[in-house]
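re: that chain from earlier
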Amino acid sequence: ELTDILKCLSYLPLVVITVGILGNSIVFFTFSFNKSMNKYSSMVYLAFVSITDTISLFGWNLDYFLLINYGFRIIDLSRASCRISLFFQFVSLEISGALLSLLCCDRYFGIISMPGSCMSKLPFNTTKFALKWSISVVLFFTLLNSHLLFLPGVY
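^ sequence. v structure.
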């Protein structure tokens, strides 16, 4: 009886993954290719967040589904699959959090900068600045966590 409930619940992560992929794809394409929206710096950050959130959906959700229905997890298949899976889980969540923090800072400086003030000379609130910082955050956290791919861990 309990296993039947777990079997039914094990399909919920697949629903989460499917809805997440669809929703994040819509967000990415809307924020990236809509001419009225892609002039705002916030949309650049949110387009990057939609990508990283899509990647983060797979980690625990897919592992839970596979464990309940097939008796294994991706991280148990091999060292390579374990390293790659953990790398993407950590990196995607860290990038997402950092980008949302940058978005908040960008909005803050965009709101407090009045024309003519010293704050208005800061490079915030531009899509060029947002794109540079987004790419920098992705590269930084990818390099920061690259040790997960190469250093030996617990197996």
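Helices lie at 2-9, 12-33, 41-70, 79-112, 127-144, 147-150.
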